[in-house]
Amino acid sequence: MQATTKPRIGAAEIRTLVQQASQVHDAVRAEMLAPHPRKIAPRFTAQQIAELIGLEKSKFDSRLRGTNMPAGHIADGKRRRTFSLDEVRAIVSQLKSFPSRPVGAPGYTMACVNFKGGSTKTSTIFNIAQGLALRGRRVLLIDLDPQGSTSTLTGLMPHTELTEADTAGLLFSTDSDSAQKSLEYAIRETYWSGIDVVPACGALNSAELILPQMAAMRRGQWWNVLNAALDAHRAEYDYILLDTAPSLSYLAVNAAYAADGLLMPLPPEQLDYSAALMFWDMLLEIITSIQETSGAEKAFKSIGVVLSKVNARPVAAMMRGIIQQSFAPYVLGPEIPSSEANALSGISFGTIHDLVDDDGVARTSNKLRQAFDRLVDTIDGATVASQWGAR
Ligand SMILES: Nc1ncnc2c1ncn2[C@@H]1O[C@H](COP(=O)(O)OP(=O)(O)O)[C@@H](O)[C@H]1O
Ligand SMILES: [Mg+2]
User: Residues 114, 91: one domain?
Assistant: First the structure.
């Protein structure tokens, strides 16, 4: 009888696979970002800035002429004047009609949550961060997903260039030499001015081992570690945005307890809807159990469910109705359409905001960009009204 050899895929083979895939990933990425080793922000047209401020283009042009505002730049061989991100922020802060955060008032902390991967948490929170920064807001974006997708969008390579000491991980460290009480050590600027980031990488997963130990031994408030650490930063930023892993992990619970508000992007699909129900159910269970065991209460200032990746199919319309009924009054007005332009920008490790105007994608990308503009307006408007309004 002939001996048959069964395939055996052990650690050695998986190591080869990991090495091969990492090499390809890094090469693709280097190619995409060439000639810049890091991402750079795109330039913006006067039309885009006028839309941001809510002024008609002609009115905007005359306001721009009449003052000592940044003049932008017309590149060789181009007809249109474009503006750098810093110029946009300077112009918006002079011409905007919405108020600044009052001096000394804390920024608003919002956690992006859902139970299911692919529900567009990362894309949504990153686009919101970019939109808020374009409006002149200062944003701290904290990546709490060990997968590090948000960090990748900032141009970092979590897999190869970050360690636990670059992430929020040291807040949860049991080693008293390295443990930290604020995120000062990990905050870094990004290519998108107005956005600072605390990145994540696989090593952040250690928090998922340490926090349950803390819970089991009843040593301190395991759910409150991030919340306490953020107190050092709330007055420095207009918004602190937290991106979480697709689960109610210990880190995600920390994000919820650190947050004033929760934002749940929700594609109108059956599986996403079921996962969302499960999320709220489990959040309730956790909040109740923490309250029962420790007396600590948690109340949010806002909850926003945003329909995302919405397509024109009849089933999406049906699911929209079901979601609106289920999650009233928390479903936000603006919806994020499903868009090919998103996939296109995703290939180059970016979002729709990173995409420069290009005839091929202009129509769909404008639709997506405008949807995010409306979402950012809604979120910022609500924050101004409820937190930073006239006092
Ligand atoms: N508006 C959109 N239209 C189409 N695809 C989208 C849209 N937003 C996000 N995606 C894609 O959906 C996938 C999951 O998005 P992601 O933000 O990583 O979700 P999560 O963080 O919840 O896992 C990504 O491939 C992303 O490019
Ligand atoms: Mg994500």
Answer: no
**Residues 133 and 376 sit within 8 Å (Cβ to Cβ):** no
From 115, 244, 264, 309, mutation site for ligand 1 pocket: most ligand atoms within 8 A of C-beta: 309
Contact 374, 381 (CB under 8 A): no
Determine, yes or no, domain membership for 300. Answer: yes
168-191 pLDDT per residue, tens: 999 999 888 899 999 999 999 999
Query: What domain count does the chain have?
Result: 2
* Bridge pairing between strands 73-74 and 81-83: antiparallel
Tell me the per-residue pLDDT of 33-59, one tens digit each, with 9 for 90 and over: 665 557 889 899 888 899 888 889 898
What lines the ligand 1 site, CB under 6 Å? 117-123, 149, 246, 309, 336, 338-339, 342-343, 346
Dihedral of alpha carbons 316, 319, 321, 323, sign: negative
**85-95 and 46-53 helices cross at what angle (nearest 10)?**
40
